[in-house]
Amino acid sequence: MATQQEITEALADFRNQCNANARLRKMQRDWTKVLHLIAEDNDSRHTMTVVAGETTKIEESLVGTPDIIVTTRSETLCDMFWGDLNPAQKYLSGELKLKASQEDVMRLDAINLIIWPDD
Amino acid sequence: MAEAHLAKVVKLRTVVSTGAGMALATVSYSASMELATLVLGDSAWIAILLSGVLCALAGACFAELSGMYPTAAGIKLFIQHAFNEKAAMLFATLYIVVALSVVGAETFVLARVLHDGTGLTAVPPWAWGLTFLVMVLGLNVVGIRIAGTFQDILAYSMFAILIATSIYAIVSAPGHLHTPMMPGPRASFAKAVAVGVFLYVGFEWVTPLAEEVTDQKLISRGLFWTIWLLFLTYALFNAGMTMTMAPAIQAHPQDPMFAPLIDAAINKGALPAGLDRAALTYDQAKQAFGTSVVPHVLFYKYMFGGAGIVLIIVLSLMASVTSFNAGTITASRFMYALARDGSLPKVFSRISIRFATPYMALIGLSALCMLVSIVVFISAQYDPESYEIFIFLGAFIECLIYAVMACAVISLRRRQPEHTRPYRVPGGDVVPVIVAIVFGFLMITIVIDKPLVGAVVAVAAGLAAYYGWRVVPRMRARARAARSTRAPRRPGRRPETPSSGE
């Protein structure tokens, strides 16, 4: 089980990767969203705010009204934001649950794909 | 702190407009008339009602499963948890075949509507069909989608116009209802119910919206309201069309608009060769009308003249656009997810940086749609009604999927009795068992009448099984091998082992 601190570290690295990726920033230029990240096996809760493609804030609680809610095990959250696992596989196996529009679900996975391409 | 609701949620009216808009396509008008020729007089509503009730029972099974797994990856996930991943791959592939068969028939009928309706006969029907498919592809690639309020306005306007014009046709029709309570021989009636299932195909595509609602019960409610709206529309439309056109053909069998229909019915064997055209019965006139590929165009033309043609072209485009909109978005995202999962070639996971859309999945899907449409157009050169085989193909696989979903409900109740179920089909296993048996029976009815459908499904299932059971494991093994060469980025830990699906 990953701790709140470990997930925060994963998110911080993810933010750096996202904000430094020019292709991603271009694709997400019109993407302004609030994401709630919920670990279902402990009390870990995070809010990530993306403004015009730039990840501006990561908070260790649920803040504001979300556009996307991600719910999964803490280990999965942590590995996913470190880029060590493919979120699409977890999503298709039902281990990663999302509340969002189809568009945002795809974008969320696309972010991962652009930062950490398969090949 | 309590978990918040989404900033933007889908409401019941959008759930219904999406499901009903998806189900009501241009080809539905033709299929509705096909159904009417299989029963006596004006009793088509009974077959439409019965198929609607059966779909509602299947919808109840979908509602239970969708409540358990509220995800856009629905059908694959339901089957995966209820049985195994190989079965999930097989049925998910067959489900895509349903979508493709609907697209083939839909493009053909829409092309005929535009060809016959606009009077631009210099433009061949296939060019209209191709133009429409390319336009849908273009809109999807650049990320223009019909959603929310616009989707609601479009779908509900279409249903309101159809219902209003149908009521007007019924009220102004000469004569009375013919044998409205006597559908005729059982075998034909069973076939009519099977065609009726096709009229509702796509109602269950509201389950991908499960991720966009906060109350899962909206999905189950939406499924039932969708079926009710579709039943009402089809029953009225069918009655209005038949009650208007059959007497018109009886009264004017030599009319240039009707004479070719009678000839076609005689050639098809639906009417006797030595028929006395001046003494056509109501049912014979209906049979003749049923040979038209675009009965709805003739109906609106007869009712409202030139304005009617414009109206039906608009209604047909609205029907096609609402169906293609929901279908293309969901199917292309699903293809993208499968490619990311390693179940489809990686090329389908490519993303357009400019538009943030899965353009290769969209192109792949459109290419398949075009291929199926080309097959329909070519076969129509030899038999103008050959597109009907795609209606029966769609109905067959849909019946199969409904039966499998019912079995999945029963299986998951035993495998995962403790799993949260926001909606549970009442009455124990009675409803799922009825759904499995009845839809199984309808599948047999279709195959007996159209053996070609059975052959196509067998080939498709064989290919899907080979792909899912032989090709996919190899692709995933390669992906795993590539991933294992990468050092984990997470400090001090190895990456998680791949999910159970692998």
List unreliable stretches of 5+ residues of chain B.
Answer: none
β-strand number of chain A: 5
SSE class of chain B: mainly alpha
Range of strand content of chain B? under 5%
How large, in whole angstroms, is the Cα Rg of chain A?
A: 13 Å
CATH class of chain A: Alpha Beta
CATH topology of chain B: Amino acid/polyamine transporter I
Fourth-level CATH superfamily of chain A: SCP2 sterol-binding domain
Q: Return the average pLDDT of chain A rounded to an integer.
A: 92
Q: What is the number of helices of chain A?
A: 5
CATH C-level of chain B? Mainly Alpha
The structural class of chain A is alpha+beta
Which sequence of SSEs, written as H and E, runs from N to C of chain A? HHEEEEHHEH
Give the fraction of residues assigned to helices of chain B. over 70%
Question: Average pLDDT of chain B, to the nearest integer?
Answer: 90
Query: Remind me, CATH topology of chain A?
Result: Nonspecific Lipid-transfer Protein, Chain A
The helix content of chain A, as a percent range, equals 40-55%
Distance between the termini of chain A: 29 Å
Report what the structure shows:
The complex is a heterodimer of chains A (119) and B (502). Helix content of chain A is 44%, strand content 24%. Chain A is α+β, with helices and mostly antiparallel strands and 119 residues long. Chain A has a single domain, classed as Nonspecific Lipid-transfer Protein, Chain A, CATH 3.30.1050. Chain A has a 5-stranded mixed beta sheet. In chain A, strand 1 (33-39) and strand 2 (45-51) form a beta hairpin. In chain A, helix 1 (4-20) runs parallel beside helix 3 (74-82). The longest helix of chain A is centred in the first third of the chain and has 17 residues, at 4-20. Chain A is globular. The N and C termini of chain A lie far apart (29 Å). The mean pLDDT of chain A is 92. By secondary structure, chain B is mostly helical. In chain B, helix 3 (44-68) crosses helix 14 (388-415), helix 9 packs across helix 11 and helix 10 (259-268) packs across helix 11 (282-290).
